[in-house]
Amino acid sequence: MITLYNAARCPYAARARIVLAEKGLEVETVEIDLSDRPAWLYEKNPAGRVPVIEEDGGDPLSESTVIMEFLEERYPEPALMPADPADRAAVRLLIFRDKDLTDPYYALRRGENGAAEQLDAALAKLDVRLYDRDYLGGAEYSLADIALVPWVLRARDMLGVELSGYPSLGAWLARLEARPAIAAEAGVVAAL
Length: 192
Ligand SMILES: N[C@@H](CCC(=O)N[C@@H](CS)C(=O)NCC(=O)O)C(=O)O
Prior knowledge:
Elements: E1 2-6, H1 11-22, E2 27-31, H2 41-44, E3 52-55, E4 61-62, H3 64-74, H4 85-96, H5 99-109, H6 115-129, H7 143-157, H8 167-177, H9 180-190
Parallel strand pairs: 1-2
Antiparallel strand pairs: 1-3, 3-4
Helix pairs in contact: 1-3, 1-7, 1-9, 4-7, 5-6, 6-8, 7-9
């Protein structure tokens, strides 16, 4: 059994939620109130942040990108990384550069000047990438899609960003939302 220390509103925790769901793993979820977080959370993650996961008897593991890769290695089926090393590197690079999307998202949330234009540029870049491929990493759904979709969903559903100007991105999102794990996350966002 895996325990997930979670916050519904957290897009980093969403990465862990989605991978756990895709792998069909049994999870006990402990919801953390980040505005009044328990002191013991710092024992599990010195940064005091979610997500954190724990396997029975295992050490707590934090950082969403590390958690995603750990789950992929521990539970390889269904695969969420491509087989080819060059394709795997491309997926990792997209995740490594997640701030290209998340920085303008948070800037818009803070109402900063120019943030809408920056987010538009980030979404347009993803739209171009998806013009000739179904998923961010290529032909197959992967951790790259899972890593970035939490912010695209929140931009659309919480910040009211109109995605019709990004047709390939919109088609990608529809493709993803046909998956139960992503539909569940869209439900989490709708309930926030
Ligand atoms: N780099 C971390 C970021 C996690 C993160 O920022 N989580 C937020 C919630 S979305 C959090 O716990 N914030 C509480 C805080 O920063 O004190 C990851 O990828 O897991």
